[in-house]
Amino acid sequence: MRKEIAKFIINSRPYELLVEPNITLVELLREQLDLTGTKCACGVGECGSCTILVDGKPTLSCSTLALAIRGKDILTIEGLAQGTTLHPIQQAFIDCGAIQCGFCTPGMILMAKALLDENPNPTREEVKEGLGGNLCRCTGYVKIIDAVLAAAETMRKGAS
Amino acid sequence: MRVLKPFEYFEPGTVAQAVRLLLSYGDKAKVLAGGVDLIPRMRQRKVTPEYVVNIQRIAGLDYIRGNGSKGLRFGALTTLHSLELSPRIQKDYTVLYEAVHHIASVQVKTMGTAVGNLCVATPASDVATALIALGAEVKIVSVTGERTIPIENFFVGVGQTILEPGQIVTEVLLPDLPARTGGAFLKLVRTAADIAKVNVAVNLRVTSNKCEDVKIVLGSVAPTVFRAIKAEKVLGGQKPDPEVIKAAAEAAATQAKPITDLRSTAEYRRETTEVLVRRALERALEGAKA
Amino acid sequence: MSEELLVVGKRLPRWQAHAKATGAAKYTVDIKLTGMLVGKVLASQYPHARIKKIDKSKAEKLPGVEAVITWDDVPQKLYNPSKLDLILRHPEGELKDMYVISEKARFVGDRIAAVAAIDASTAEEALKLIKVEYEVLPAVFDPIEAMKPGAPRVHEFAQNNISLHIDFPVAWGDVEKGFQEADVVVEETFRTAKNHICQIEPCACVASFDADGRLTVWSPSQHVFLHRRKLAELFDMPEGMIRWITPHIGGAFGKYGSFGVEPICVALAKKAGKPVKLEYSREEDLFGTEARQRYIATGKIGVNKDGTITALQEKLIVDGGAYFTHNSSTTGVNMGSFVGLYRCPNVAAEADCVYTNVPPTGGVRGYGNHEGTCVLEQLVDLTAKKIGIDPIELRLKNIKHAGDPSNTGLPMETCTLEECIHLGMEKIGWKEKRARKKGNGTKRYGIGMAIMMDVSGAQPFNIQSTNAYIKFSEDGSANLIVGAADIGQNLMGTLSQIAAETLGIHYEDIHIVTGDTDSSMFDSGQHASRSCYQIGNAVIMAAREAKKQLLERAAIKLGVAADELDAKNRRIYVKADPQKWVSVDEVTKEAIYNFEGEHLNISGKGSFSPTQNPPPFAVVFAEVEVDTETGEVKLLNVLYVNDSGRAINPATLEGQLEGAIAQSMGYTLTEDYFINKETGALESDNFNTYKIPSALDMPETEVVLYEEQPVPSGPLGAKGGAQGAMVAITPAIANAIYDAVGVFITDMPATPEKILEALKRKKATN
Questions:
Q1: Contacts with C18 from chain A: Cβ below 8 Å
Q2: Nearest CA to C590 among C470, C472, C469, C502?
Q3: How many helices (H) and strands (E) does chain C have?
Q4: pLDDT grade, residue C754 (50/70/90)?
Q5: Cα distance from C249 to chain A (closest Cα, Å)?
Q6: Structural Rg of chain C based on CA atoms
Q7: Which of A27, B113, C235, C689 is most enclosed, with most CB atoms within 10 A?
Q8: What band does C1 get if pLDDT is binned at 50, 70 and 90?
Q9: Interface touch C659/A96, C-beta < 8 Å
């Protein structure tokens, strides 16, 4: 199996890494780059914990080959805050009590970002639809949905 | 963790290159598009390809465009989410829209392609059920040329299509639907994000108060998604009265060959096939009359 | 408390919320140590088989493999993976029937061998090279079948596979007489669901021996001290040579009241002489860690025409799976909940715990109360229908009041069931909604309810002791050191709020030290909803001691007597003249950097062992719509009225109750543990086959926190709340289905298939 030197852009940082074809993106992130914020909880693309953004699109990193996304713009949870300033979605999750054990949180926050980037003013139902691929066992989703709606409002105010 | 077994990896830049690779490696190769089906199955060792041919870098396969007066076409790399967002599909091909919209995971819809879904050939495919009801076709390209076949002839068994090594689907073609056409898609699931227990798509036209071009398509109740021809014949050419609708629905249920598995029982699937077909026909008729 | 609370009762951000929101929080699965090996377990592919021979030589020779262990390499000691045998007053019922690696395969997934290698693919290769010679034995998957003569014997000692027969030890009255006296007797048999808690972080452990032979274990344990002692006993080590650390925990819900994979991970680390990380895949987590017991529960209730209960009896067959684990404790709680929720003069219960060749069960959220109350509350609705009175009226006739014993037998300081019932009835519009005509439409509306009481710990049955230590730094902030783990329930934020309130400083001034047996003192662990109530009390004691020192030092500075002072908002002030104050940090700094020979690092210690067990109460209403043609149940709305005394952090408590609604919905309607009857393999082994609810499945929800009666023995009036939060939701949903279409699903989950079947049977009999 041929190893390749591949270029990646992760959280706006360029990387040049020796990568085998059979390494998944979640493995690259967690094991090769020590970016353990992205989680792997099922390995079959069902739980959404491994969600990251590839060119802004929500992507299951457990079901993505690392080589397949070289050169694309990858955003993981570690890259969301600007220095010490949290993204409004992160802040809203904290303020609304949307985090309990926190294991689903990184994937949930990034999925919420993708949702709000596409639809800045979603209804509650649209938020539920947007989070249909992210499982949480602790919260019952209620405060997560509250947080996404609160973040949407903050972001709309910030944009205007 | 290296959950995947080693394989040789290719990123062809053209369809021609892709089919040449697939022809040379035959059964040992798998096509990678969205990856939402292939990678998990590789991890679970359900498939162990020695060669993975990633077609994502091939330009010109991600599109939705009109086909003149002949309907709509979309490419092999068109994602489910693109289909969901397309105003033309929402308006003119509501059956497809409904099928895609009710796939729960946005990530799966963002990564996954409709063509990829068809090639997986699961008997529970929502996408296949809807596309067959709409009379859609696929264009198959090989080293020797290309041909177009109706999707209802595309599946041959559980997880099996008519594709030979060296062949690839590049496009789906949706016919233009005449006026007074209505369709509906319904499914039964355990939770919103589950594979269907039963899924049903219907499409029909009402002319002079008679049902024409009736398509009743059943998923999850046979080794492949299929048209319930007997049921279509019960309704075709008839007035859309409740008794006829019921008879068509019952006929559809007799054509179902469901199994019992961890999602549901054969008995339940058979019974609810009748219910879903009946409800879908009622919805389709409302749409046709509107 | 008439005084205004400044920190307690506020929706403050939880402990480590920032770390979790930025991906900085480290869980066991995230830990990386230098030279760490990857551990993998070889699982049995047979449900029942003797192991004739294992040849591990090829595996051991594979380059990159550092240890291969089989049964011969592990301690030859039988143990019970739960912590109960260490703290129960009467531990005889906690059977020890498990080895670190099994000597016989008793379920598909049982541990047969394990390897530690330089990476996962090498470990996987090595597993394939281990040659196991099995003698396949017949297997049994159903407890009724297992109890028949001639059934395959799962454990040698258990005749008819009955591991233990339990007669409920504190029965009272005379049930036979009670049933004779009753006007109406209702008896029904229910099968509760075997359901997996599906915490999102897969089970994992990291174990490392240092150069002195001292072992450090990282894992999501809920009982670091008890598990440390258990591990010490297993591996013949003194407890002091083991340090247990809990990283952030991605969900536990009671499951880590048992070992996860620690014993086998430690055995690998010991053999390899290097750190080992053992992480389960989701599939391994589902078949290899404990699920709920399935109970075949026959409940019997005797009532008079006016609704007074005369007798309650429960007979249980417990499908415990291949190993005993928590079977007797959860069963005991099940029985205690069944007979103890209502006033009743005559009660009895008994159970047979049975072995079957399926993955083992343990103690998870609800811990038997869930299943016991589920059966009882459905029985109550059945009975109400039979005697023709409103189900709430029947409950009100029999509910307990303050002073009555709770389901633990201890007297209740408060009992707010009646108040919560009325509050809920009012809010949801019970009377009007129950009076709605069902109609003949395809879709039928139904409303149901249920009540419950749970616990604030396991007293008087177990050791429940705990300690807290507070020490100040010069800047007026304080470390709060507790031996408890935050399992995602924001225990640390809750305790911080209690500490800050008592000390008179800010929430941000509390710096938590947690989940490390080296730095903290003993805690009995996170179970039975004990932590806020019991550790909260220990924290208050510690805080009061520290506060006393603060006030004494401040008194000298201010030239007053200490009892004239109080502390609030980082200030120590004269109560009669609040303008006279000194800041907390001034006092703490001068006490530490003291030139007068009066050095003092202001601190306080608290040690608490409870004598009371105030139950949290819940009254839950559920509204459903049942499609009579497909049997589908749409859960429309759930109203949860909860009494936890006082909500230290309302957002935290609400969040847990909302989570319980999702878990109960899954338990009641969709989650099914599917064993293949031919092979014994678990078919529902990942999230694509075992379906837990997503956001799209959730109903409307409303949580009401009833806080009118803080409990006197609780820290600032608080008691438990979230451990038992599933208990009343499941029967409320079941009762709503009963109201909608007149059928009870006596075999959970209440799937559409079963409902449609039941509707057909009902139609046929009418």
A1: 86, 94
A2: C472
A3: 20, 26
A4: very high
A5: 6
A6: 27
A7: B113
A8: very low
A9: no
Distance from CA of A41 to the nearest CA of C (A): 6
Q: Does B273 touch chain C (CB under 8 A)?
A: no
Structural class in CATH, domain C399-459+614-766: alpha beta
Spell out the long-range contacts of C425-431 with Cβ–Cβ below 8 A and sequence spacing 24 or more: C425/C392, C427/C639, C427/C641, C427/C702, C427/C704, C428/C621, C428/C623, C428/C637, C428/C639, C430/C392, C430/C621
ipTM over 0.95: yes
**For residue C3, is pLDDT > 80?**
no
Q: Is B79 helix (H, G, I), strand (E, B) or coil?
A: strand
CATH fold for domain C17-24+465-608: Aldehyde Oxidoreductase; domain 4 (3.30.365)
Q: Is A44 on the interface with B (CB under 8 A)?
A: yes
C282-341 pLDDT, tens digit each: 999 999 999 999 999 999 999 999 999 999 999 999 999 999 999 999 999 999 999 999
> What would the 3-class secondary structure string for C238-294 be?
CHHHEEEECCECCCCCCHHHECCCHHHHHHHHHHHCCCEEEECCHHHHHHHCCECCE
Q: Which of residues 726-755 of C touch B (CB under 8 A)?
A: 751-753
C313 vs C31: CA distance, rounded Å: 50
Whole-number CA gyration radius for chain B = 19
Give the pLDDT band of residue C2 (cuts 50, 70, 90).
Answer: very low
Task: Label residue B1 by pLDDT band (50, 70, 90).
Answer: low
Contacts of C615 (CB under 8 A, 6+ apart): C406, C407, C408, C412, C415, C453, C454, C455, C456, C719, C720
Is B104 an 8 Å CB contact of chain C? yes
CB within 8 Å: C695 and A30: no
* Per-domain residue ranges of chain B: 8-54, 64-174, 181-289
- Domains of chain C by residue range: 17-24+465-608, 28-138+200-288, 399-459+614-766
- Pairing type for strands B226-227 and C65-69 reads unpaired
Per-residue pLDDT tens over the stretch C558-595: 999 999 999 999 999 999 999 999 999 999 999 999 99
pTM value is 0.97
User: Could you tell me if B266 lies within 8 Å of chain C, comparing CB atoms?
Assistant: no
The Cα–Cα gap between B43 and B31 comes to 16
Q: What is the pLDDT at residue C533?
A: 98
**Residues in C touching A145 (Cβ below 8 Å):** 695
Residue B107 distance to chain A (closest CA, Å): 5
Domain span at residue A123 reads 88-159
Q: Which residue of A has its CA nearest to B36?
A: A63
Q: Give the closest of C29, C250, C282 to A101, CB-based.
A: C250
